[in-house]
Amino acid sequence: MADSINGDAADITAALLQVVDGQKVGMIRSVRAGITAIRKSIPDEDIEAAIGSGSIPDSWGELLEEGYAGLIEKRFRPRWKKAADASAGLVQDGAEELDYEHDWDGLEERLEADKDARADELLEGFVSRQLEASRLVLRGLGDETPVGTELLSEALRYSIGLTVQQARALVGYVRALTEDEGDEEKGAPMSRRRMLAFRRKSVMSMLRRRAGMMVGQRSRLMAVTELVASFALGAVSAVKDLVAGVGMDTAPTRVWVASGGGKTGPCPVCVELDGAEAPLGGRYPSGRKGPPAHGNCYCTERFVVKD
Questions:
Q1: Residue 42 near residue 57 (C-beta atoms within 8 A)
Q2: How far is the C-alpha of 104 from the C-alpha of 222, rounded, in Å?
Q3: How far apart are CA 94 and CA 8, in angstroms?
Q4: E strands of the chain, at which residues?
Q5: Residues near 154 by Cβ (< 8 Å), separated by ≥ 6?
Q6: Does position 15 have pLDDT exceeding 90, yes or no?
Q7: 168-182 pLDDT, tens digit each
Q8: Which of 55, 173, 185, 292 has CA 20 to 30 A from 98's CA?
Q9: What would the 3-class secondary structure string for 251-291 be?
Q10: What percentage of the chain carries pLDDT values higher than 70?
């Protein structure tokens, strides 16, 4: 006989989907607004220095760290709290049904500590990946076949907010747009400088559209992933608080619940994880800490008390 503290798999998944549905649009807008603000704050001299030296200045990293710290504090934290509180509430309700008497005095403090740890982890990853994305754009568009300072400057600004994969795709896209196909009528090749002058407005317009679309995709990915991560964090925090407060002899076991977000079945990665077990303070057999397993993952966890 085993009891699940936070309910059955269907109820937990339904609670997660309700949180995501309620918070996703606001989170997406917040992330996009934050990324746009950071991008616009890059000084012209930083762009010029990058193009001139072929490398990203140290000041750029400092600016990113400050900007993303503000993004996390002002835009992520309020929505993190809603997601974490929702899953912690399931644990509190389940503990009451199972007759665990606990006053939850330390829960808020524990949640804040866990959110601080998540913020530090997220910030470190953000800054390093954004710098690498910008370096990719600089190397890809500023090497032996330059595309022009104005276009490169614009592409560098848009690299803020892109993943490394998106930055690589943007380089390929801009290269394709500015490929020197020659002047077929006169049978003479068109110089890159002349071609870019001729097509500059349309190329810049298409660059902005494509990069803006990529930032939108990144914002949606981050929104869902962070809401799911916070939902998982809230449940773990609450169970740890419960275990410490009631003095359980055996800590609950974490059980992975795979979900495709209510629209499709779980992805191949998550199907294999479904039902896997891990100790409360440990990792799953796959080596993962817990949900989310990947970007846009909707997985959750049950916390089972075994006899």
A1: no
A2: 30
A3: 10
A4: 2-4, 253-257, 277-279, 300-306
A5: 204, 207, 208
A6: yes
A7: 999 998 888 777 554
A8: 292
A9: CCEEEEECCCCCCCCCCHHHHHHCCCEEECCCCCCCCCCCC
A10: 90
What is the rounded CA–CA span in Å between residue 51 and residue 207?
A: 18
One-letter amino acid for residue 208 of the chain: R
Return the closest-CA partner of residue 126 out of 61, 215, 74, 30: 61
d(CA 204, CA 14): 44
What is the reported pLDDT for 182? 47
Question: Tokens standing for 146?
Answer: 């330059």
Question: To the nearest 10°, the Cα dihedral for 100, 102, 104, 105?
Answer: -170
DSSP lists the bridge partners of residue 188 as 183
Residue type, 111: L
Say what the pLDDT of residue 203 is: 81
Higher pLDDT, 248 or 1: 248
Q: In the chain, what is the straight-line distance between the N-terminal and C-terminal CA atoms, in Å?
A: 6
Confidence class for position 277, pLDDT limits 50, 70, 90: very high
Helix 9-40 crosses helix 58-71 at what angle (to 10 degrees)?
140
Q: What is the DSSP letter of 204?
A: H
Backbone angles phi, psi at 132, to 5 degrees: -65, -40
Q: At which residue do the structure tokens 């998540």 appear? A: 118
Q: What is the DSSP track for 29-78?
A: HHHHHHHHHHHHTS-HHHHHHHHHHTS--HHHHHHHHHHHHHHIIIIIHH
283/181 Cα distance (integer angstroms): 54
